[in-house]
UniProtKB/TrEMBL annotation:
SUPFAM superfamilies: PLP-dependent transferases (SSF53383)
Catalytic activity: (S)-4-amino-5-oxopentanoate = 5-aminolevulinate
Enzyme class: isomerase
Family assignment from sequence similarity: Belongs to the class-III pyridoxal-phosphate-dependent aminotransferase family. HemL subfamily.
Metabolic or biological pathway: Porphyrin-containing compound metabolism; protoporphyrin-IX biosynthesis; 5-aminolevulinate from L-glutamyl-tRNA(Glu): step 2/2
Organism: Clostridium weizhouense
Protein name: Glutamate-1-semialdehyde 2,1-aminomutase
Swiss-Prot/TrEMBL cofactor(s): pyridoxal 5'-phosphate
Amino acid sequence: MNNLEIFEESKKYMPGGVNSPVRSFKDMNMNPPVIESGKGVRIKDEEGKEYIDFVLAWGPLLLGHCDEDVVNAIQKTSEKALAFGAPTKLELDLSRFMCTNLDNIDMIRLVNSGTEATMSAVKLARGYTGRSKIVKFAGCYHGHFDGFLIEAGSGVLTEGIPGSLGVPQESVENTLIGIYNDKNQIRQLFEKYGSEIAGVIIEPVAGNMGVIKAEDSFMEELRQLCNQYGSLLIFDEVMTGFRVAFKGAQTLFNVKPDLVTYAKIMGGGLPCGAYGGKKEIMENLSPTGGVYQAGTMSGNPIVVAAGLATLNKLNNNLEYYNHIENIGSKLENGLLKISKEYNLSLVVNRVGGMLTIFFTDLKEVKTYEDVKTCNVEMFKRYFKHMLKEGFNVAPSQFEAMFLSVKHTEEHIDNFLSAFKKFACKENGMC
Ligand SMILES: Cc1ncc(COP(=O)(O)O)c(C=O)c1O
């Protein structure tokens, strides 16, 4: 069966032919390739066409596809441990690793996805403070938990829908919407509701409205307001954890979170998640405390083994982050140079190995409002062109592209050559 045949057949059995909406390429008005295998930075579809991958499973594969140490760990563990639903030494190893190697994490709870991590962290914040309201920022995405499906980024933003059907009004009436990088607005929100706010959840480097780094003074204001009103500050590092730096986006700011959520890279490509923070807060989780959160598969041995192999490899090779910074900056500078040469209006935002090309006439993109000025039709043309040239990038203007330790300068050069052809076509010169 070719790609199209598989995808059409899939639509009979899975809504839209997929298990997560953006995979369908619906907003790109085309059918997606059906991926058969991946190794390093290359993925191959069912028709044998290869792509250099800048999606990396939407972030997790910092070591590239099927890294041999990760695959070995999975194979070795699977011979003796699939699942127990009981304590394991592997869970201790991963939890201790994260608590000792990351900042501001005394204790951690392992879960199965980023959504589970963020929704559980919010529940814990509510249980700990005895308050109901949470603040999330427009354009940030924290998973598909009802309370977050309002003004969300990622697929919700790509599909241009205000939220989701099936979310009762009661589920979002305790969600307050903050404006990213707007100190005055958040201060006003606290002045009005401060004593009712359990916590503020934020992507410290947003990736789900395209890449936008929070401003230092904005983060400081958040910390100060949370201190003043007794609310918890939750960093959602599902995307940025172990990516923008080994210790995550936390290290980019002079601000300490109370709770942090992780997923993606920490599971080495398998379904994972975690949330952690101060002992005093974490001990409110059942069985030591009254906030109930559980999971049959939480701390699954195979996932934990893949995660440990990944994190150990990163920790033993911190120079990987220099490599990613170098190729990231080469990509950024190359894109800017080409856009100048061909008079193409765009802004490139990058933090480490996360980058977004915003097709906009603005000079900089710092807010959700800025993001909305993007020329989505131009993005679609760019996307289709790059895919045809053999480069897999996220099928949305409002996502990040990701770099791995396996990308080389040559991959970046090739990407830039393909981008140059696009710029030339757009400009009418080719
Ligand atoms: C910042 C952030 N938080 C939470 C999530 C949800 O994670 P998952 O898709 O594993 O449920 C995502 C997913 O992309 C994310 O980027």
